[in-house]
Design brief:
A six-stranded mixed β-sheet has the order 1-5-4-2-3-6, sandwiched between helices. It has a five-stranded antiparallel β-sheet with strand order 15-19-18-17-16, covered by helices on one side. Strands 8-7-9-10 form a four-stranded mixed β-sheet, with helices on both faces. The longest helix is centred in the C-terminal third of the chain and has 16 residues. The protein is built from 14 helices and 19 strands. α5 runs parallel beside α6. The chain is globular. The protein is an alpha/beta fold. Bound molecules: magnesium ion.
Length: about 425
């Protein structure tokens, strides 16, 4: 199995993500870079993995700056002053997970080519170790204040009442302080870092945010903010205590940030295209790294994923959940209530389902499905098979982890018809 996935290296801490593996990552990375900055989220495995990576980096002769427990966007911002950045995080995964993600100076995560290079050095044990007199040195720095000041320099004052749910993650070190310094009345929820994530699952999806919804309503706040474990993601709740759907938040930011073009993943609602009429919408594979890569390539104005990753290229190519929170607060301060602003956006019905299909049959089935779907409209194969029809679109993707094929359909009107047509083609292809 490949070491790196679309979000770096991730797995169960101390059985898959071990100090032994982390040491090799440090050795490989250190063999190719002279300096590195390293940070971690509050996971129980964080310090163990961090120390092992640092040992590897130093042994390879790379100088290391430790910035302690920080959000991923803080680490990505700090990386501009070093040859590379290392974030010890498993993002929104449950507490038993650990992970390592590598960063470039421009705030973009290592792409697949760079990850392959590291992987090949590890596999071939091709790292270099330094002589005794050129072993790397360790420095410590506090960059949270620099990151906070950068954000505060980009947004105006605001006097809203905001509930911030950091989910016991790394956002606890920065988001409440930034919003308070903007002038907001901030009420914190779960803003004590804790690697057991006792308050809620770190993923900021609606079912994990019941506490935030209740608190936002109960405190009479203007809005609520939620982050994942490492704060590259940000989601919101309106003043009525209602979760704002990811596609809506994407269109909401897209409308205000996009002059010419925007980048979104292939499973994004066509509501975004309709709202942003006249502006180019580029679609990529699902994953914020792909959105960032395409954004850089197209020189687009904005990029985002409905899962809560918002990329403002004027700030960073790393999705910055803290800046996104500050920008959202600024917009609501200037333009009025979040529920009415979001309420202006259209909503189209979407249906999602799965069809059982054994893993060995998936490839052949996808071929037949492609042939069947061709008749329905314009086909693209960025990620699975997507068909754009007059009424809407369909996405058929084999699950990467389960013996299933996933179907998503969205239409401006009759989504059931579109879904059942697709389901029939998929079922016939599996027979
Ligand atoms: Mg994350």
């Amino acid at each position: 199995m490949a070491l790196f996935g679309s979000s770096g290296i991730r797995g169960i801490a101390n059985s898959e993500i071990t100090p032994g593996l982390a040491l090799k990552v440090g050795l490989a990375l250190g063999s190719m870079h002279d300096s590195a900055v390293i940070g971690r989220d509050p996971r129980t495995s964080g310090e163990m993995i961090e120390h092992a990576i640092i040992s590897g980096l130093l042994s390879a002769g790379c100088n290391v700056t430790r910035i302690g427990m920080v959000s991923t966007p803080t680490l990505a911002y700090a990386a501009r002053n070093y040859d590379c950045g290392v974030m010890v995080t498993a993002s929104h995964n449950p507490p038993e997970y650990g992970g390592i993600k590598l960063w470039n100076r421009d705030g973009m995560a290592f792409d697949s080519k760079q990850q392959d290079e590291i992987e090949s050095v590890i596999q071939n044990k091709a790292w270099k170790t330094a002589e005794w007199n050129s072993i790397g040195m360790v420095n410590e720095a506090n960059v949270i204040e620099e990151h906070a000041e950068m954000i505060l320099g980009k947004v105006g004052r605001a006097s809203l009442k905001v509930v911030v749910d950091c989910g016991c993650g790394a956002a606890s070190t920065i988001t409440p302080y930034v919003l308070r310094r903007m002038g907001c009345h901030v009420i914190t929820l779960n803003s004590q870092p804790d690697g057991f994530f006792p308050a809620r699952n770190p993923e900021p999806v609606e079912k994990n945010l019941e506490m935030l919804k209740k608190a936002t309503l109960a405190f009479g706040a203007d809005l609520g903010i939620a982050h994942d474990g490492d704060a590259d993601r940000m989601m919101a709740v309106d003043g009525l205590g209602r979760f704002v759907e990811g596609d809506k938040l994407l269109a909401f930011f897209g409308l205000r940030e996009t002059k010419k073009s925007i980048v979104v993943p292939v499973d994004t609602s066509i509501m975004v295209d309709d709202v942003l009429k006249g502006r180019k919408v580029y679609r990529t594979r699902v994953g914020d790294v792909y959105v960032a890569e395409e954004l850089k390539k197209r020189n687009a104005d904005f990029g985002g994923e409905p899962s809560g990753s918002w990329i403002f290229p004027g700030i960073s190519l790393c999705p910055d959940g803290i800046y996104a929170a500050a920008r959202l607060v600024e917009i609501v301060e200037n333009e009025g209530r979040l529920d009415s602003l979001v309420g202006e956006l259209p909503a189209y019905p979407m249906l999602r389902g799965t069809i059982a299909c054994s893993n060995d049959k998936k490839e052949a089935a996808m071929g037949k499905i492609g042939n069947g779907l061709k008749k329905m409209g314009e086909i693209s194969s960025i990620d699975g098979i997507r068909v754009d029809t007059k009424e809407g679109w369909i996405l058929v993707r084999p699950s990467g982890t389960e013996p299933k094929i996933r179907i998503t359909a969205e239409a401006r009107n009759d989504v059931e018809k579109l879904y059942s047509k697709t389901e029939k083609i998929v079922k016939e292809a599996i027979l």
